[in-house]
Amino acid sequence: MGKTDDIAVPAIRAEGLCKTFVVCFVPIAKLAKSGAKEGRPELDRKVLPRQVEAVRDLGFEVRPGEIFGLLGPNGSGKTTTIKMMMGLIFPTAGTIEVFGESVPNLEVKRRVGYLPENPTFYDYLRADEFLELSARLCGVSKRTRRRRIRELLERVGLAEALNRPLRKFSKGMLQRIGLAQALIHDPDLVVLDEPLSGLDPLGRKEVRDLIGELRSQGKTVLFSSHILSDVEMICDRVGIVVRGRLRDIGKLSNLLSARVTETGVVLACGPEGPGSLAELAAMALERGWETLDVEGRLRFRLPQDTDPAELLRAALDQSARVVSVTPISESLEDLFVREAMR
Amino acid sequence: MIDRVLAIAGNTLRETNRNRVMYVLLLFAVMMILGSVTMGKLALQDPLILIKDLGLAAISLFGMIIAVYLGVTVVHRELEQKTVYFIIPKPLHRTEFLLGKFMGMAATLVIQLVVMSGVFLLVLMAYGGGGSQVLLKALLLILAEVMVILSVALLLSSLTGPILAGFLSLALFVLGRSSEFIATLASSGRTGLSGLDLLLRAANYVLPDFHLFAVSGAVSRRVSIHGEFFSWAYVGYASGYAVLYILIMLGLTIFRLRRKDLV
Ligand SMILES: Nc1ncnc2c1ncn2[C@@H]1O[C@H](COP(=O)(O)OP(=O)(O)O)[C@@H](O)[C@H]1O
Ligand SMILES: [Mg+2]
After folding, report:
1. What is the complex's ipTM, to 2 decimals?
2. What's the CA dihedral at A336, A220, A115, A244 to 10 degrees?
3. Which of A74-78, A179-183, B233-237 is predicted least confidently?
4. Taking CB atoms and an 8 Å limit, are A88 and B88 in contact across chains?
5. Is the pTM of this model over 0.90?
6. Which residues of B touch A194 (CB under 8 A)?
7. Which of A86, A122, A129 sits opposite B83 (nearest CB)?
8. Who's near A208: CB < 8 A, 6+ residues apart?
9. Which residue of B has its CA nearest to A19?
10. Which of A144, A232, B103, B148 is deepest in the core (most CB within 10 A)?
11. Domain ranges of chain B
C-alpha cells in the first residue's frame, strides 16, 4: 500500500525545529529571595517571564523502515520533539513533517502509533475496554477488534490482565498496555517515548525484541532513551540531542568509536609490596597521566597517542602485577557530561 | 467522524458512571426530594404544592451542581492526568474530542435528571399527585438550563483552573438568574450613571439568561407569571435560546483549545 512512494518520502523530517516554553509563574517568591541573596536584583521582579528553550534548531530525517534512536540526557528535549511530532504542542519555529505531511494531520495519525513517556491511561477502564476504545478510535473494524486485542495482550505479556482495571496496573504493566494501544491499528510508524523505562531486565529484553520484530515487518520506529545500552543493540541510526540541539546523527558505532580516547591500565602491587606502585605513580605524575588509587590498585588513564608499552615495561621492572589493559572509547555518558559542562 | 465522537462520548459516560462523586451528589438530591415530603406535611395548604415546589427546586439545584462539577473537572482531568497524550494523537480532531466530551457529559446529566425526576414522580404519586404536561415542561426547562451551565463551566475551565472556574460558573448562574432584575435596574436609570446602565445592559446580553428557565415557583402555584409561560412555544423558545448559547460556548471552547499546547 503505497510502500514504493514511501521510500522517497522520509517517515519523519524535522527542519529548524524550535520550541520555547514561556514559564510565567515560576515560584516567584522563592526566586526573588534567592535572587536577592545572590545579589541578582533582576530576579526580584513581581512576575518573572522566563523562557525555556527546550528545542533549538533541530533538524533530522528518519527513513522509512529504519529504527531511529533519539538519545540524550534528561531534559534535552526528546519528549518535546516527540510531542511536536504528535500534534500535542506546536513548534515556535521550524517544521516537522511525518510521511511528507505537516502535522497534525488525520491521515498521518492513522499511520502512527505512539507511546507517551510515563504513560497514564483512563484508570477507570479495564484493559480490554481500554484497547477496545483505542481500536475503535483508530478505525479498526469491529470484526477484527476482539482478535487483535487478544493477540496484542498476548504479545505484550498481559493476557491474564484482560479484565483488570488499569487503576491496578503497575508502572511496567502500563508501559506494556501502552505498547499494545500504540500497535493496535498496525501502524507504519511507531513512536515510543522512553519505552524501556519502568521495566525490569526481562521486560526490557522483551520490548527490545518487539522493536526488532517491528523492524522485520518493515515498520519505522522512532524511540527515545537516555540509556546507551538500550539503543546500541537495536538502532540503525541515532540522533544525539543535548540541550535541545542535535549534537550528532548517524550510526552509533561511527559516532562514538571515532572518539576512542584513552587506554586504561590497572596495576596491582606485586610481592615486593606497595613501594613499587609508588614509583609508578611518580612516573605517571611526571608524564601527566591521570591516576586513581583504588583499594591498593592503581588505575592509569593514558591519552590516546601514548603507547602503553612504556608503562607496562616499567611495571614489569617493578614487578607489579598487571590486572588489565583496556582501550576506553568515549561513552555516551562521557559525551553527555562533556556537553553539559560546556 | 460520528463514530469517533460517539466513542469519546461513550467513554466519558462510562467515566462519570464509575465516579463515586456522582452517586454522592445523586444521593443528596434524592434526600432533598424526599425531604420535601416532610415539609409538605407541615404546610397549611395542599402538601402537593410544596412538594412540587421543593422537588423541582432540588432537581434544578443538583442538576446545576452536577453540571458545574462535570464541566470544570472532566476535561481538566484529561489534561491533569495526561490522558490527552493518549487520546489526541489518535486519528481524530481536537474538535471531535471536545464534542465527544460534551456529549458524554450531557448524556450523564440527562441520566441524572431522569433518575431525579423518577424519584420526584414516585413521591408525587405516593401523595396522590401525578405527572402532568406542566411538570414535563418544567423539567425540560431545567434540562435546557443545566446544559447551558455545563457549556459555560466547560468554557471557563478551558480558561482557568477548576476551582476558580467552578466559582465563576456559580456566580454566573446567580447573575444569570437575576437577569430580569438587572434589566429593570438598567432601564429604570436608578443607578444615576449612564455608563453603569450601559454596562448592565451589555452584561445582560452576554450573561446567560437563566431567568428564562426559572420555573418552580410558578408550577407549584399553578399560575403562570406570564400569560403564555407554560405554553410549548415558550419551552421551544427557551430551548432554542439554550441551544444557541451552548453552541457559542462550545465554539469558544474549541477555539481556545484548537491550537493550545497540551503540556
Ligand atoms: N511544559 C513545559 N514548560 C516549561 N518547560 C518545559 C515544559 N516541558 C519541558 N520543559 C523543559 O524543556 C526541556 C526539555 O524537556 P523534555 O523534552 O521533557 O526532555 P527529555 O524528554 O529529553 O528528558 C527541559 O528543560 C524541561 O524542563
Ligand atoms: Mg522525556
Report:
1. 0.87
2. 30
3. B233-237
4. yes
5. no
6. none
7. A122
8. A196, A230, A233, A234
9. B261
10. B148
11. 2-259
